[in-house]
Amino acid sequence: MSIFDTFFVQSIYCGVYSIWRASQVLLFAGSLLVLSYVVRPRLRQIPLWKIPGPPRVSLLTGNRTQMFHPGAAKFYDELHETYGYVVKTSSFFGDIILLISDPKALNTILLKEQDVFEESDWFLETNRHVLGLGLLSTIGEQHRKQRKMLTPVFSIKHMRSMVPLFYKITHQLQDVLKARIENCPQELDLLDWLGRLALELISQGGLGYTFNSLDPGGEENEFGKAIKECFPTISKLVKFRSIYPFVSRWPSRFLRLMGACLPIPMVHNIMHIKDVMYDNTKKVFDEKKALLKKGDEDFTNQVGEGKDIISILLKANVIASKEERLPDEDILGQMTTLLFAGTDTTSTALSRIFSLLSLHSDVQEKLREELKEAHEAAGCADLNYDDLVALPYLEAVCRETLRLYPPVNMVARVCRADTSVPVSRPIRTSSGTLSSVFIPKGTTLLVNINAVNRDPSIWGADAVEWKPERWLAPLPASVTDAHIPGVYSNTLTFLGGGRSCIGFKFSQLEMKVALSQLITTFRFSPSKEELVWRFGSIVTPSVKGSNSLRPTLPIVIEKA
Ligand code: HEM
Question: Which pTM does this prediction carry?
Fold first, then answer.
């Protein structure tokens, strides 16, 4: 063998040896990763194995395919009926997710130990990236400070002052619909129009900004499109959201580059939406700050006369103590957060009400009568806040719809420290019954809003029927005795505790103004198309059998 051959063989040997060593190091590092991210958390969850729940359908994805798809509502109902109020389901590699509808347990989770049961990292990190530092992206002291500054802005006093603006916007929709139907009944996609209404109500009432979505010749600008696309795009990205916390702290330029290189159009869309929303809210914010500096007269000359939520917040922030004052970035974050949280939720809730009223013409007629009488009593003028909230049947229709059909069916929480949660109904396990459940750190919980709002043991044998009348008499003791930890009408529709919906009074008012105006002007009847309501971050309507994923609500409208 020549020197050359020996050198050649040695080089090959060295190369093979290096590859072998490198693969050993990689294998070792990979095993450590698997141990710390998969095996260790699963071992911590051993105490949960005895909790009843459905069998896993896949070793890799557990029950995820049954839990996260548009028809999943039925699966959740079956889980509640079969396994009760605390149900064990499984996610990736056997990770246990607990589905909770026990009111006592929810009191601990949402109220008593709300700092232990926080939003998940994927929820916070992706929201922070897309919406900025608003209420949906912060926890702990920062969240508490934001809530403290924002809560007074949603007071009844401020809601009262919003009524004329809400009527002005609803009149615009009324005019557009009148022009569309002229003198004969027309089938329209009401969700589209209610979406525009909700967008204008929150953008003018929340930010003092108009998208001109209800102007006859108004063209939707890039900002309006971004807001509309934001919720559906984030919902579609749900699979990728759980990966984001692992990369979220990487330098933002690198993240952008990575995002741009990924062959996933939805990621490119969300990056674009985020940029458009940030640039535009920043512009509105800077203009508001400049007006505030100039003085009161200029400030009240803006859209919404400076009565919008962010204007009031900006004013309150100026006089707040140094410790409580919010930095500019936190206020900017609230702007996108309000647009995001306040548009699709309200428009879907309203859609559900109109859909039900179209199917129950007797309820629609009774509501119309009540509203017409109130309008006549007010000299045919728009109703004021006190008149609106005093209408019992309007209140009953809203409450019953939001109870039976909460737009948000489920919210997630992650347990941040080992803890025990008492339950009101003993959990039956293979080895006996449990009066409390030990929840290990890192476990994800799903608060089953739908199951609590429809529980026959709380609401009676007719719990799953839509009966506005149930709210016209005192509620049964089973409802009040259940101590449901929600901020609204003994339901969990707007959740409860420090992360409950801050906009629930705003949303109530939007719905009541819209109903008072539209029900007295138009009559609504069902389309020939059959509707299905798809489960997701928000439950949305679409036409049965349609391949389109775009939510839609075809409904026939005529003059009343
Ligand atoms: C029918 C309409 C609405 C429903 C059903 C609804 C429901 C909810 C729910 C269930 C949460 C808790 C989310 C979680 O913990 O993950 C929430 C939070 C929130 N909602 Fe609403 N919402 C509605 C309308 C609105 C409106 C109109 C606004 C704004 C004006 C709004 C602003 C917010 C904000 C900012 C949060 C986050 C609160 C926090 O974390 O402190 N919502 N909403």
Answer: 0.91
